[in-house]
Every structure is written in structure tokens, then in C-alpha cells.
Design goal:
Number of domains: 2
InterPro entries: His-Me_finger_sf, HNH_nuc, NUMOD4
CATH topology of the largest domain: Homing Intron 3 (I-Ppo) Encoded Endonuclease, Chain A
Oligomer: single chain
GO molecular function, one term: endonuclease activity
Keywords: Endonuclease, Hydrolase, Nuclease
Radius of gyration: 25 Å
Strand content: 15-25%
Largest sheet: 4 strands, antiparallel
Helix content: 25-40%
Protein name: HNH endonuclease
CATH class of the largest domain: Alpha Beta
Number of strands: 11
Pfam families: HNH_3, NUMOD4
């Protein structure tokens, strides 16, 4: 949401649910604060005129998503979530929002869709945005070398899945799935 000339692009502004009369989202992925008189202080004794302005979002360091602070809150609101809540119906009550083109900063309404966690991960893998197989899987207990050792040990000895599992400090089910190729298929 940099200073971009969007005139003639059919920008549509709508109130963000929960922030009616204070903030609006646009179909082009921008958020603005509306002109209003805001009550300042704890007892409502001070008023401040707030001018309408398009907000300049920050980018979250670890996630890479754009965010804005609404109502001066320290908790930041992800821009894609505000856009989706404003413009995209969610009849199945799906909790996540997917960036269809894989670009986390493209918050145009046509680039967003509601999804489940599973749908979001599958999309990220299909787009090549993440690799969650093998050692890249956050909960991986073994690595490619151990997989090769387990498979070789099974072929070359009379050891059972349980004995191999005990040798490597994993559960029997994991050893069986690795040895049979059900998991770690990418390792030869």
C-alpha cells in the first residue's frame, strides 16, 4: 500500500466489520482511516479531529504479511484478514485466508480466498512456497541419513521394526512407515 495512483482502477471502499465509521478496506487491498472526531483520554473530556488517510502498513518480520494498527491498538490487524472480512463471504466459516498467487503482500480481493489450515498448507506446497517433507518438517525426528540406515539395516539383518525403532530411539510405527516407504518417499 505504497503511494500509488489508483484512480480509474475501480477502487471500492467498504466499512471493515467491527470498525464501521472509523476504518474502511478497499477491493485493491488498501485500508484507510475515516475522518471523524475521536474521544481522547479515559473520561471523554478531550476530542481530536482525525482526518481521512490511507494507512501505510508495516510488514511483519517473521511472517511477511502486511498489517495495520486499528484504533491505535498494539495488536496489529493483518491487511489480508481485514480485506477478506470486508469483501469475501465465508459461509463455511473457514478460519484462514489464502493468497491465491502466493504473494503475501498482494491483498487485492481477487487474490484472496477463505480456506482451512489443510487447504492453506496444500496450496503453499503446490505453489512451491514451502517444503514440509523430510527434515524440513518441523517435528521431524530423523533425517535422510537415518532413513537410509534404517532401510539398509532392515534389508541386511533379521531385525524387526521394533528393534530398529529402539536402535534409533523412535517408535515402531515410525520405523515401519520409513522402511516400507510410506513416509520419507523422497529418500532413495
Amino acid at each position: 500500500m505504497t503511494a500509488t495512483n489508483v484512480e480509474g482502477l475501480g477502487e471500492v471502499w467498504k466499512d471493515i466489520p467491527g470498525y464501521e465509521g472509523r476504518y474502511q478496506a478497499s477491493n485493491l487491498g488498501r485500508i484507510k482511516s475515516l475522518a471523524r472526531v475521536a474521544v481522547m483520554g479515559g473520561h471523554g473530556q478531550c476530542f481530536k479531529e482525525v482526518k481521512e488517510k490511507v494507512l501505510n502498513p508495516g510488514i511483519h518480520k517473521s511472517s511477511g504479511y502486511r498489517f495495520v494498527g486499528l484504533n491505535g491498538r498494539k495488536t496489529k490487524t493483518p491487511v489480508h484478514r481485514a480485506i477478506a472480512k470486508t469483501f469475501i463471504p465465508n459461509p463455511d466459516n473457514k478460519p484462514f485466508i489464502n493468497h491465491i498467487d502466493g504473494n503475501k503482500i498482494n491483498n487485492r480481493v481477487e487474490n484472496l480466498e477463505w480456506c482451512t489450515a489443510k487447504e492453506n498448507v496444500r496450496h503453499a506446497i503446490a505453489m512451491g512456497l514451502t517444503n514440509v517433507s523430510g527434515v524440513n518438517q518441523p517435528t521431524a525426528q530423523i533425517n535422510d541419513d537415518i532413513v537410509r540406515q534404517m532401510r539398509a539395516m532392515y534389508k541386511e539383518t533379521n531385525m524387526t521394526y521394533r528393534e530398529i525403532a529402539n536402535h534409533f530411539g523412535v517408535i515402531r510405527q515410525l520405523a515401519e512407515r520409513v522402511i516400507t516407504g510410506y513416509t520419507w518417499k523422497h529418500v532413495q
